[in-house]
Amino acid sequence: MAQLFILSSISLLFIGLFGVLTRKNIVKILIALNIMETGINLLLVAFGYVENGIVPILTSNESIMNLTKMVDPVPQALVLTSIVIGLGTTAFSLALAIRYRYNHNSLSIRASEEEEGVNI
Amino acid sequence: MRDERSLFINIVALLILSVIGFYIYKVSMDTGKGIKITDNITPQMRVADRFMNKNVIKEESKYVWGGTAENTSANIVTSVVVDYRLFDTTLEVIVLFVTILGFGFVIPKDKRKIIKPTTILNRWAPILMILMLMIGGYMFVNGHLSPGGGFPAGAIISTAVLIGVLAGRKTLSQKTLKIIEAVAGISIFSLGIASFVITGNFFQNFILNDRIGDLFSAGLIPIFYGLIAFKVAAELSNIYFEFYEEC
Amino acid sequence: MNSIVFLIVIPLIAAFLSLFLGKNDKILAYIVTLFNIIFSILILFSGKIPFNVAIGGWRAPYGINYAVTDLTIFFLVLVNVAALLALTSVREIMEYQFYSFYFVLLSSTNGIVLTGDLFNFFLFIELSTFAVAGLISYKRDRLSTGAALKYLILSSTASIFSLAAIGLIYKTLGTLNFADIANKVNNLNEASLSLILILYISSLLVELKIFPFNMWVVKAYEASKTSVNLFIHGMLGTAGIYGVLRILLMVFSKETGKLTLSGNLSSILMLFAFVTVIIGEIGALTEKNMKKILAFSSMAQLGIVLFGISLGSFDALKGVLYIVISNYLAKFVMFLTVNEFSKVSGSTNYLDMKGLGRRYPVLAISFTISALSLMGIPFFAGFWGKISIIGNAVFSGKLELIGAVLILIASVIEGVYYLRISHTFFSQGHEREGRISRVYCLLPMILALVILFIGINPDSFENIISILLDEIKSPEKYIKLILSLK
Amino acid sequence: MVNRVYYLGLIIAFIMAFGSLWALLTDDLFKAIVVFGIVSLSSSVMFLLMQAPDVAITEAAIGSGITTALFIFTYKKLEDRKDER
Amino acid sequence: MVEIFIIPLVTAFLLAIFIRNKKVVWPLFLISNLYILLKLWTLFGKWEIEKTIYTNYELFGAKLSFTLSNNPLGWYFAFFSAVITLVISVFSLGFNQKTKENVAPIWMLIIFSNLGIFFAADWITFFMMWELMGWTSFFAITNGRDKALNEAKYYLVLSLLGASSMLIGIILLGALTGSFEIFASAYGLVQVFYSEKALSIAAIMLLLFAFFIKSAIFPFYMWPSKVYAVGPEDYITFMSSVMIKYGIYPIAMFIVPVVGSLDLPKILNTANWIQYFVGYLGAISAVLGTILAIFQTDMKKLFAYSSVANMGYILLGFASMNIVGFEGALFHAVNHMVLKAAIFLTLAAVIFRTGESEMHKLGGLVYRMPITFLTFLLGIIAAAGIPPLNGFGSKWMIIQALMSQKMIIFAIAMIFASTGAFMYLFRALASIFLGQLPDRFKDIKEVPLTMLIPMIIMMIGMLLIGVVPGVVMKPLTTALRAVGYNVNIASWTSLEGALKNSTIDLTLVFLIFLGGFVISAIMYILGNKSETVPQEDNYTGGEYPEEWGVNADRFNYSYSFYQPFKEMFEPLLEKISIDEFFASIGRNFEYMSATVQGLFRRGEGAVLLFSIGVLLLILGGWII
């Protein structure tokens, strides 16, 4: 089970990296980045996974007895943070992409920026 | 977006990926001594063990359901996020603040006409909004007991604002959002400073002696979560306003 | 000493306040920056260094901790002073977002230096990335939008890599604390460690402007205002160097305080370092835009820094610290000079600045002094770094020898383009209308005099450096300090 | 029981892999965005399978919901711009 | 001891403050130089004076210290260069009335580094002063004028390269011998030479590389002609007479004693390979400098190549490893200082009045500037090595030393170069001062008194040294004895030779030549008078070349004077075009620069390059 999780998240990571490397459209690159982020989040949680584990939430005295069966809560906490960071990155980059599109009339990452000269 | 070098770059990218993949495979198959990345290390061998046993301060201490502990949140993830590693979470809030600030700063503000919403949406919007607010409120209030917490709660609350915007109802002004955002942010740190004044430590959970499993337990955690939820909601609502408000 | 957190919290609160203050933001910025400087200097002289602060009362390997040691406080003062110096170049009225980004950058760079937790460090780096991206895009024109976007995409990719490394560290060692990692890193499998290091170092090198990772540098410098350049150089750059010193030398090092990375990683880093130096200097050779020249040059200087670190000897590390301080001061002088001159000449092309050195000799001489310091000419601070690094490289091995020779050749190229610029300042130019106030000449002059002072009297700086080196030499003290806290 | 969960995980993993590939390789931007939303949503199911309900809810609300919404807003804004010219 | 270092610094600072006020700057410059000279005079014989500054800076586990000591050989160089500097600074008083730029503060810094180089007792101090001299020269050469930028850059690159190689050499030396002190490291190097042969030779070669660059020895012979053509003339005088000796001093100080003490296998029973290496470079410089000087049309370039040739003679003197050759080389260094200063002062005077430095545009200036002419005449007689003046004695000593060491090839090269020197020197004299005065220079006058006095002093100096060589040889031999060489103190008028019965009395020689001069003067007075015709009739035959669109100056007899000779040597010169080689390196760097800039301007492949970096990190573990 843990292997499945890790492999699927690594495949997402690789597909995302492939997209970031090869796509020209900025929105596509951002989608690829998001896929990578999803992949890394899955990977982190998968690192904390325990075979046949249970949710790290206490519901009664029994679950306190079963602490050893719980999955690791720390990676989950980290992933909570990293999801929000991903949202922030996406929002900021999208705004920049819109501005980029307005300035360059193109969404291609290769849109030329030959603008030398007066620049204080 | 076709490009003449497209194929070349694809091949290069695949090559890079395959080398990285092969390297990771090789590392995982390594037979040297020491801890490997494929080794199964249970949470009991990590720092998480102390978090689950809630005995970071006093070793060997045990706790029971309905009793007190150093941290009385039933949801251990929440206790890590909002107590043991609270500083990370506040920074995360700041990250969202900065990015949304940048978003509002960078996005081009051009006049755009708003399509008139349908009557049904306009009529039903308040009900939906209240529903969303309630769900969100429930989430952050119960963040220490059940899954959820401040971030999704904030997202859901912000959906209420989104519905309002889509339905053409003026709910909040951007100025109000800014104030909510700043007040929530400042109060998070004010709580930190308050705990510094009271206990001498920053961001210490200084409300003690409540019991695990109660609604009003876990000390400051629900308060922090509430602040975070409002802050996130205000920030996300800002995004919708940027897209859908006439400027 | 728990109040050390105020260094981070006060700027963050100011960031929220700055949304409402409008034109008073500038005053707030000065107040907060001065607070940070005074506070860090008070800590420096409090006599309680080293100490360790546990946030929220959770002790070290479990909660987040802030450790203040000699190395920390040195870089802390550098970062905060840089903030104040850079702030003096903000003249015109800025929108409130500028100050919000500035406050976040201030707090995050302070945090990078203070923190003792890997994930916290990562968050601060992210925070500074976003703040810098916002500052780069401040002008919102063609150039700055593209530059900010590309910087953001690159650093997000890098952050994903470092997150993977953090996850692997947590999976294998079960901890996120610097000291705890340093304590346990010897238990790690060799191959696994090098995988983790590759993932983590490649993200660190983005901030450190090392060659294959630094495509953002030149565009970002070109597209942004001078004050933003100074923020990137003085605050983010300095904090990044601290991060590399701390993480490579004291956290992931298997031997005490040396860069002994597994799998020949240090040789590759050295290769990167001197390729960066060469690329930076060659790129600047025919460039006309002063900002780009300075961007290329700071790239090259950081290449020398990494070269010194990867040599793995304490003498070379001493040289690194000299180079750091020389680059820190010199780039301030240069950017401030360019800022003033470009305002008079109306362009950042250095050929348009002809003759300004005759009208404002103080600025031009300060520029020349800093250029000579960067070249590693005697009587200036950079020389003591260069001689130490080159001296240690010559006898370390073949690759090191090649690197030393290449760095010397690069410094020749650096001499050509910098002194050419100085000459242009001093040559006969036509009359111009703009004026530079004498007050603005004062700061570059003082900084240049500091460079000269360190160059003539290395003793003044040598004593500080020996304290820092003592700390790097014995990471077990750091581990003990943090892990013993109950 | 374990087997059933395992197969569910397998199916979701395939959905995610193919979805992300599709999102990257398709020429239609809107399709890519929608498919990405699906990938993100299925990843939140994956989180649920990993016994991480907190992360799952957050991913569903923020990673899948709001991020996708952001993409769609952007898409619409860019499309509007295209019409104007 | 310390005052002579503080005074230049303080003066440089004051000069920088008063830079716009010429009435203050140059007198101050003069006074400071006078003070330095007087102070140096009092330092003679007090060899034990020493000043050390200790630091806490550690290198290779030892704390660095900077020592300045009054070492005899350094004093010898410093004193005579101070004399020359003083004379030039008198000249500058008058020369700089017209110029807009002001080179004085930078020049004063160079004088500081000059003293530092000659008095440094350890390599670190030496290196610091050496580097200081390199970049200050850049600013002195450009002096704020754009036309000099390219040449100054060329000089800067060479001197920085030299300094870099010297840095590595010093580090090697320090690590090998465990000391940065010059004498201690020389002694140590001899000790460890046989055990660490490769490293020791590398250290010597790296140091020699730097010294050769500074003294314009063969592969680096291009910079004087470039730099002298564009630099400010009074500063160029200083450069050609004093600064070009910076490479000679450390060779005499360090390389010669070390190589002399080593027991290396000899080639053909005459000398070891290092001697041959240095000797061949010297011989090539001498011959090549002479040949190139013959072809120049710009007088400053001509004498720049003449300097290269003279540096070659000095190197040949060192290569002989014979005490007479060594003395001769050091003697020639001072002789060259004096005569080159005299010649360049006259050139500066000519340029001051006419503004021309191309020789075929000048001519007949003897009628207008007689004293300048006389100085120039004596200068070229000295440079050609004709007996009554000072160039003769030292060349004679060097040739004797080479003959006595059986280095026949070098002696032939030197005789060839000396003969060739007649060709270019005579030609310069004829084209600048003799012949007919062009119409445009009808109204020029002799230079003012402040510029005449230095020239007269130089004349007297050349004659004095030529007739009474003891003026230089006595301090030199005293200094050499103080350093530890086993030499006799020279007498006032006679020079010792290396061969048997070769001691000559130069005063006697002077008297013989005086007799010859009187006879020829009588012949000139009693001879036929010349007839004057319009100048251009001489070489255009009454035609007007301007009508064909050709500049009439090109038909002047001194344009392409040695054309047949040039055609003879053309193939040789094409093959050894070092200049083209350096230029191609520069072009390649500029091409690469454009590529790098393009890479960073686009910046779209940021993530691609990032992953390539990761790839390299991964592959590095397997490959390296």
Task: Give me some keywords for this one.
heteropentamer; C: 486 residues; mainly alpha; two-stranded antiparallel ribbon; 74% helix; globular; E: 624 residues; 24 helices; 4% strand; transmembrane (chain A)
Question: Would you give an account of this structure?
Answer:
The complex is a heteropentamer of chains A (120), B (247), C (486), D (85) and E (624). Chain B has 247 residues and is mostly helical. Chain B contains eight helices and no strands. Chain B has two domains: 6-37; 72-244, no CATH class. Chain B has helices at residues 6-28, 48-53, 76-84, 86-106, 119-141, 150-166, 174-199, 221-244. In chain C, strands 1-2 form a two-stranded antiparallel ribbon. The longest helix of chain C is centred in the N-terminal third of the chain and has 32 residues, at 142-173. The two termini of chain C are 15 Å apart. Among the domains of chain E are: 271-530, no CATH class; 578-623, no CATH class. The longest helix of chain E has 32 residues, at 323-354. Chains C and E meet through helix 6, helix 8, helix 9, helix 11 and helix 15 of C and strand 1, helix 5, helix 6, helix 23 and helix 24 of E. Chain B: The chain crosses the membrane at residues 7-25, 89-108, 120-141, 147-167, 179-203, 215-234.
Q: Structural class, from secondary structure content of chain E? A: mainly alpha
- How many helices of chain E in DSSP terms? 24
- Unreliable stretches of chain D, pLDDT < 50, 5 or more residues? none
H-E order of chain E: HHEEHHHHHHHHHEEHHHHHHHHEEHHHHH
Question: What is the CA-based Rg of chain D, rounded?
Answer: 15 Å
Q: Biggest interface between protein chains, with counts per chain? A: C-E, 80 and 62 residues
Derived structural class of chain D: mainly alpha
* Whole-number mean pLDDT of chain D: 85
Sum up the overall morphology of chain E in one term.
Answer: globular
N-to-C span of chain E: 54 Å
Protein name (chain B): Na+/H+ antiporter MnhB subunit-related protein
Subcellular location (chain B): Cell membrane
Main location (chain B): membrane
Transmembrane segments (chain B): 7-25, 89-108, 120-141, 147-167, 179-203, 215-234
